[in-house]
Amino acid sequence: MPETQNNKITVIIPTLNEAENIEQLLHYLHQDASDKVAEIIVSDAESKDKTQEIAKEKGAIVICTKQASRAHQMNEAAKMATGDILYFVHADAKPPKSFVNDILKAIEKGNDFGCYRFKFESKSPLLAVNSWFTRFKVLWCRGGDQTLFIKKSVFEQNNGFDEEYVVMEDFELIKRLWKKHPFGIIPKSVKVSARKYELNSYWTVNMANLKMYRMFMKGYHPQILKEKYLRLIKHPKA
């Protein structure tokens, strides 16, 4: 009997003022969810727009956290998830329509966690280069934009996201887990927003990402990483 036969997926979306994106994403997810999706949980950090109202109207379970930190928001949602597999998705990302079967097949192949590649919603050839590198299993090519699936049991055994990381929480989790758990990259692409690149130049964002990665690997405190990142580029929701 395949391991995935009775598995269900809980989709978790951390949000903060994502009214412009959450309606489209939830409509998109519901179209292709199937009975293998146990629930979709939107973990919102007290948005000032209509994120929560829209999410409820679109059939999501909405929880509210006082701490605006993706690591905390996703951990809180994971606590109430009933699915056997957790699937973390950013509000401005669009997984392939086949995401349910893709994830179940990846688990069936023996992966405990993993992600997709990604493509930017942009015609920029430079961003296409960035996207191309996400097919490789190296840490600097990872990130939350690619979405992340993980067995709930593995997530719990490893204490979930480290909430000290107010940025780069996805890098920290992957780095901590993939030395002892099989990690798979699904050979399809999530479509992600290029909004950071639209506010900043291509080189500004890339150099900021490189700086942050180097500081992360050198062990800088997460709060220093956050402060540095906020200074390096303009942010869509600043």
What name is given to the CATH topology?
A: Spore Coat Polysaccharide Biosynthesis Protein SpsA, Chain A
Please outline the major beta sheet: 8 strands, mixed
Query: Major sheet: order of its strands?
Result: 3-2-1-4-7-6-8-5
Please, what is the CATH homologous superfamily?
A: Spore Coat Polysaccharide Biosynthesis Protein SpsA, Chain A
- Percent strand: 15-25%
What are the segments in which pLDDT stays under 50 over at least 5 consecutive residues? none
Second-tier CATH architecture: Alpha-Beta Complex
Computed Rg: 17 Å
Order of helices and strands: EHEHEHEEHEHEHHEHHH
Could you walk me through the main structural features you see in this protein, from its secondary elements to its overall organization?
Helix content is 40%, strand content 20%. It is built from 10 helices and 8 strands. The chain has an 8-stranded mixed sheet, sandwiched between helices. Helix 1 (19-31) links the parallel strand 1 (9-15) and strand 2. The longest helix is centred in the C-terminal third of the chain and has 16 residues, at 202-217. The mean pLDDT is 93.
